[in-house]
TrEMBL record:
<protein>
    <recommendedName>
        <fullName>GTPase HflX</fullName>
    </recommendedName>
</protein>
<keyword id="KW-0547">Nucleotide-binding</keyword>
<feature type="binding site">
    <location>
        <begin position="344"/>
        <end position="346"/>
    </location>
    <ligand>
        <name>GTP</name>
    </ligand>
</feature>
<dbReference type="InterPro" id="IPR027417">
    <property type="entry name" value="P-loop_NTPase"/>
</dbReference>
<dbReference type="GO" id="GO:0003924">
    <property type="term" value="F:GTPase activity"/>
</dbReference>
<dbReference type="Pfam" id="PF01926">
    <property type="entry name" value="MMR_HSR1"/>
</dbReference>
<keyword id="KW-0175">Coiled coil</keyword>
<dbReference type="InterPro" id="IPR030394">
    <property type="entry name" value="G_HFLX_dom"/>
</dbReference>
<dbReference type="GO" id="GO:0043022">
    <property type="term" value="F:ribosome binding"/>
</dbReference>
<dbReference type="InterPro" id="IPR006073">
    <property type="entry name" value="GTP-bd"/>
</dbReference>
<keyword id="KW-0342">GTP-binding</keyword>
<feature type="binding site">
    <location>
        <position position="232"/>
    </location>
    <ligand>
        <name>Mg(2+)</name>
    </ligand>
</feature>
<comment type="function">
    <text>GTPase that associates with the 50S ribosomal subunit and may have a role during protein synthesis or ribosome biogenesis.</text>
</comment>
<dbReference type="InterPro" id="IPR032305">
    <property type="entry name" value="GTP-bd_M"/>
</dbReference>
<feature type="domain" description="Hflx-type G">
    <location>
        <begin position="199"/>
        <end position="366"/>
    </location>
</feature>
<dbReference type="InterPro" id="IPR035647">
    <property type="entry name" value="EFG_III/V"/>
</dbReference>
<feature type="binding site">
    <location>
        <position position="212"/>
    </location>
    <ligand>
        <name>Mg(2+)</name>
    </ligand>
</feature>
């Protein structure tokens, strides 16, 4: 990484600002969970109510003095604000507290840096970190500020800053080139899946909703899953066989969060495109969370940012084992289409209902059945095998070819039309 991270385990003081507008208000419990997920040892949690934002320090001077006293008395290493801080506000607060200060974005970036495992994930985190820190480079060179500016007064401080900025720009350009290559590779993989007519189903949802637990249970995988925010960062794809439907690719993606920093959305665009290009989204929801409705809205907001808000969606209400008298079930709309599935991934309750709902939502445009082909359709048999659509093959007593197939109905109609048959009549006449 271009910037080294602290080893963790720092004594931290958290500052939560009670916002007046609901759209800007943050959840204090989520803030605490984020800090703990980053490895902070939380010594104090300060709530600032009814504050008037200050351009210099964000909070009032009285509260600054109170926090500074706590920092000194308890040897606090780090002060974290549950809101966005400008670079100048960070520097001013650090000068007052005599310790490091970061905001909500910096905290989330730190968690992402800890969770990234793959080469792609590390590149995306580094890009977001560089973007965030680019406006904060001056912090390390304040002791040389007096040497800046004016003929004959341009000292090494300015030179060092310009060097850092140039190196940063070069590194950002290199990362973007590498991520563009990753995006191209992902696009090739998607085209390959589309040619093979293998649907892509993507798990999305608020962080810690249980996506990875559900993913592991359905695919028998070993993806890291834990009761913490952003346990999963790197996308994982697995092939999954759905009974009476066939194969699909299931993708586990990074969890969303309230007010997800825009620079993170941009950095992870290559990864999030898996959701935008999916045939179906499984929106995993923590049914037990008190913030359930707001979390659902935040997920839909991020999906809109990445252009995935028009992808068909099935809502999966998870953790029903924590609710009273709720059994696994499917809820349907007025037309009988599945819209919600209530399950518990942890206790393996109702998982078969997900397969049932997926079959209904994705199977409408697919033909799943047995074709009875006379011997003269040997070429059609070969084409179906080439398309990977044949699941099994047998012969009738009359010598006809019996093919159990699973493929898009449009592709079947196209292949049948080549043989001079009317697709609907052919399927009706030869389907068992």
């Amino acid at each position: 990484m271009f910037f080294e991270r602290h080893g963790g385990g720092e004594r931290a003081l958290l500052v939560h600002l009670e916002g007046s507008a609901p759209e800007t208000r943050e959840d204090p419990q989520e803030f605490l969970d984020l800090a703990r997920s980053a490895g902070a040892d939380v010594a104090h949690f300060i709530t600032v109510r009814g504050h008037k934002p200050s351009a210099k320090l964000l909070i009032g001077s009285g509260k600054v003095e109170e926090i500074a006293a706590l920092v000194k008395a308890d040897e606090i290493d780090l002060v974290i604000f549950n809101s966005a801080l400008s670079p100048s506000q960070e520097r001013n607060l650090e000068r007052e507290f005599q310790c490091r200060v970061i905001d909500r974005t910096g905290l989330i970036l730190d968690i992402f840096a800890q969770r990234a495992r793959t080469h792609e994930g590390k590149l995306q985190v580094e890009l977001a970190q560089l973007d965030h820190v680019s406006t904060r480079l001056v912090r390390g060179w304040t002791h040389l500020e007096r040497q800046k500016g004016g003929i004959g007064l341009r000292g090494p401080g300015e030179t060092q800053l310009e060097t850092d900025r140039r190196l940063l720009r070069v590194r950002v350009r290199q990362i973007k080139q590498k991520l563009e290559k990753v995006r191209s590779q992902r696009e090739q993989a998607r085209r390959g899946r589309k040619r093979a007519e293998v649907p892509l189903v993507s798990l999305v949802g608020y962080t810690n909703a249980g996506k990875s637990t559900l993913f592991n249970t359905l695919t028998e995988s070993g993806v890291y899953a834990a009761d913490q925010l952003f346990a999963t960062l790197d996308p994982t794809l697995r092939r999954l066989e759905v009974p009476e439907f066939g194969p699909l690719v299931l993708a586990d993606t990074v969890g969303f969060i309230r007010h997800l920093p825009h620079k993170l959305v941009e950095a992870f665009r290559a990864t999030l495109e898996e959701s935008a290009e999916a045939d179906l989204l499984l929106h995993v929801i923590d049914a037990h969370s008190e913030e359930r409705d707001e979390q659902m809205q935040q997920v839909k907001h991020v999906l809109g940012e990445i252009g995935a808000d028009q992808v068909p969606m099935l809502e999966v209400y998870n953790k029903i084992d924590l609710l009273d008298a709720v059994e696994p079930h499917i809820q349907r709309d007025a037309e009988g289409r599945p819209v919600q599935v209530w399950i518990s991934a942890q206790n393996d309750q109702g998982l078969a209902l997900i397969g049932e709902a997926v079959r209904e939502l994705l199977g409408e445009e697919r033909f799943i059945g047995t074709l009875c082909l006379p011997q003269r359709f040997a070429r059609l048999r070969a084409l179906l095998h080439d398309a990977g659509a044949v699941q099994s093959e047998d012969y009738s007593e009359q010598g006809e070819i019996l093919l159990a197939v699973n493929l898009a109905r449009s592709d079947l109609n196209r292949l049948l039309s080549r043989e001079g048959e009317q697709p609907d009549e052919f399927v009706a006449r030869h389907t068992l």
